[in-house]
Amino acid sequence: MPTNKTNENDNLLTALVSGCTAAAVSATLTYPLDFIKTQQQLNNESYMKKFNVPPNYPNSLNQLFKGGSALVLGSVFKNSTRLISYNWSSQFMAIDSHGHNSNKTTAPRIVIAGIMSAFFETLTLVPFENIKITMIQNQTFQNELNRIKDSKDITYDITGKSSHSHSQAFHAQKKPVYLRQFVSPHAYLSNDIIDQFRKNKVRFPLQSNKGSHIENLKAYYNKHPSLTFLGTIKEIYSLKGIKGFAAGTFITFTRQIAISWVWLSTYNATRQLIDPHNKENGWFNHKHTMWQSLGLHLLSSIAVITVTQPLDVIKTHVQSKNGKAIYRDSLTTAYKLFLNQGPLSLFKGSLPRFIKVLVSGGITATVYEYLEGIVNTAGGQKMFTY
After folding, report:
1. What are the residue ranges spanned by the domains of the chain?
2. How far apart are CA 26 and CA 23, in angstroms?
3. Closest CA relative to residue 275, chosen from 267, 71, 337, 42
4. pLDDT in tens, 61-110
5. Could you report the per-residue pLDDT of 3-21, keeping only the tens digit for each?
6. What does each C-alpha distance from 349 to 42, 161, 212, 298, 316 come to in angstroms?
7. What is the distance between the alpha carbons of residues 9 and 369, in angstroms, rounded to a whole number?
8. In this structure, are residues 309 and 317 in contact, taking their beta carbons and an 8 Å threshold?
């Protein structure tokens, strides 16, 4: 909650209404940047160019907001969880064991309360992140399907199933499918193709799992990708069960901890350079001009993106449609991305994410302060007093 002031009118209801609304507005306005970032992280441009696959970027504003419902709902639940859990945990940590000074707390207790609230809010965020990424992939895959239909250069199925004659397909079996044709990372891959990605070998005979229920569901959703919030929930649950909504939990925790640590460390170190003679230890005792504050925010944002972007890329791949099947865990994901796409692949999507981090804090703070005033004013009004 990006507000520095406290007053007697502040209460949990005011914070919930103002904080959740501000988070929803910020998430909505900056969502196109999130869409572009996720798509850049999952696309392999050199791989697409190799097979003359048309670009799969959105062609309308509506497509740029695909998955926005998941992010907005996730942001609202995340902020609600943060405020409620922090309010409860900070009050709990302030209880004096001897029954005196029950409202007194200490810095270590505040830190522990913050850690507790961060734990619960991250748990709330993970399922919505999985839904969001699948919705983005579904829209991206739909664009690939539509544009490849109009392309005369593509003569095969982008899910890995050959469209050539049986004799050609038979002779091509000696080479893995993903080496001789484009296999979209946004499609659900069959077990045969997954084996080829993971082990670089072919399972014989090809399409051996054709009759299994999951394989049939993969084929169905490859032809009819879900483009709605509820449809995507059904899709994930049908193919992966409850576990499908928990993918990437560990790497999400790691990323959130790293973001907080880098931001606070950079901000604190930089402001002390600006005001080295300030002897006060309080967080808000430093007085800065508007330009100094903007500079602190800019430097902190650059540091956050530089340090945590690889974690964000790994998280996106782990939570993708085939993430757990291909990569299994975060370390394997980092290793395979580094080996197959090079070190720069771990920094894909840096620019749109940097812009989002830079502007979202200002949007949230502005909307929060505005709504806080409205809610506090409305809270002091009495009905039917005339």
Report:
1. 1-154+349-386, 248-344
2. 5
3. 267
4. 999 999 999 999 999 998 888 888 777 777 766 665 445 555 555 656 66
5. 444 444 457 778 888 889 9
6. 9, 30, 37, 18, 11
7. 13
8. no
- By the 10 Å C-beta count (0-12 exposed, 13-18 middle, 19+ buried), 149 is classed as exposed
**Residue 374, number of CB atoms within 10 A of its CB:** 13
Angle between helices 330-341 and 290-318 (to 10 degrees): 90
Token duo for residue 201 = 């070998």
Supply 102's token pair.
Answer: 């029950």
Beta strands in 107-202 (DSSP E): none
- Percentage of the chain beyond pLDDT 70 is 77
State pLDDT tens for residues 298-309: 888 999 999 999
Is the pLDDT confidence value at 283 over 50?
no
Quick check: 278 pLDDT over 70? no
Q: How far apart are CA 50 and CA 73, in angstroms?
A: 38
CB within 8 Å of 104: residues ≥ 6 apart:
94, 96
Please state, in angstroms and rounded to a whole number, the distance separating the CA atoms of residues 293 and 193: 51
